[in-house]
Write a structure and sequence with these properties.
Length: about 350
């Protein structure tokens, strides 16, 4: 009996070790070169513009003033340690400009001031290029939201990338407790998410509406719940003329989301050229694809799923532990692996 218990203990430790270290040990990550290098030595501290970071003062105008001054220089706006309260609706709200970096210290947070507005965002990147956001936390107001608590859907974002934004890097940023989505991308190109975390957001960890060129690597999407679809990442065009293409999701974790870890929904627009490789799924359905025939099974491979499994009983006097079992997906050349992918075809809505 003791030998059996020791074996189970070793197995549990091994599974836990694999779960904790999986993305780090995998080769071929696109994170190399993802963290941006400032093109200018200019660094402007938001406190030099009057920001307090005391968790009480409205710092929106001070932070925006720093952004406006650094815009176009290739320099950096620095947000030091502290909690900076920011307006998220109505407009104007914090909006980044071209050719700049917003750098948040490790313990710096941009925290949403509660609103009843149906459309809000902590930080917006719209119609600009060569922008990076590095480090820190964006925290929403899902627990303090003044609108109807039972309203389905929602439009309250952490980081909102839209309207032709291009060459965008988001590195080491956490987006949590949003009324809707941690991160949201619509109408953008060449966007990279590296080492980001989306945690405890109400609708999605990351929503992709329209993009040409997207990389998500070494990131975590977890605890999404509150309203449908509750996915870690949702690929879902809103209009027939929108397309999602040239996407790589790799070396990332999808943990305890109410919906699928990755949802691909092409009922309105086109979703194609998506590669999902070397990701880990736990506590949620791994991948669900609907109306997306151009998303090929050969591009969904090398993923892993961690599932609880009761060990066989060794008799009435033996205790059977539940252990974590890691299931590896087939290699790309083996074709579809239905343990990970569920593909459903629905009738597209008429144009």
């Amino acid at each position: 009996m003791r030998v059996c218990s020791k074996i189970l203990a070793i197995f549990c430790l091994l599974a836990a070790s694999l779960l904790a270290s999986a993305p780090a040990v995998l080769a071929g990550s696109s994170s190399e070169g993802c963290a941006p290098t400032a093109k200018s030595a200019i660094v402007l501290n938001v406190k030099d513009k009057g920001a307090k970071g005391d968790g009480a003062t409205d710092d929106t105008a001070s932070i925006q003033a720093a952004i406006d001054e650094v815009a176009g220089t290739g320099g950096t706006v620095l947000v030091p340690e502290g909690t900076y309260m920011v307006e998220v609706a109505p407009r104007p709200r914090l909006s980044l400009k071209s050719d700049m970096t917003l750098k948040l210290a490790e313990n710096a947070m941009l925290k949403a001031i509660p609103t009843d507005d149906e459309k809000s965002a902590v930080l917006t990147i719209a119609g600009v290029s060569n922008v990076a956001v590095v480090g820190g936390t964006l925290e929403g107001e899902r627990d303090e939201h003044k609108g109807k608590k039972d309203k389905r859907g929602g439009w309250g974002m952490g980081l909102y990338i839209r309207d032709g934004a291009e060459h965008i890097v988001i590195a080491g940023v956490t987006a949590r407790k949003m009324w809707a989505d941690g991160f949201y991308v619509s109408g953008a190109s060449d966007v990279k998410f590296c080492d980001v975390t989306a945690d405890n957001n109400r609708r999605q960890g990351l929503s992709i509406i329209e993009v040409d060129g997207l990389v998500v690597t070494n990131s975590v999407f977890k605890n999404t719940a509150g309203t449908r679809p509750g996915a870690g990442i949702d690929f879902e065009p809103d209009e027939h003329d929108q397309a999602i293409t040239n996407v790589k999701i790799e070396n990332s974790k999808f943990i305890d989301n109410a919906g699928p870890g990755i949802l691909i929904a092409g009922k309105k627009g086109t979703v194609a050229k998506i590669e999902l490789t070397r990701n880990m799924f736990k506590g949620n359905r791994p991948i669900l694809a609907e109306d997306a025939p151009e998303v090929l099974a050969s591009s969904i491979c090398g993923n892993r799923q961690v599932m609880p499994e009761a060990t066989p009983s060794a008799g009435l006097n033996a205790y059977a532990d539940t252990v974590a079992v890691m299931v590896h997906q087939n290699d790309c050349e083996d074709g579809a692996d239905m343990r990970f992918e569920v593909t459903r075809e629905k009738h597209k809505r008429s144009k």
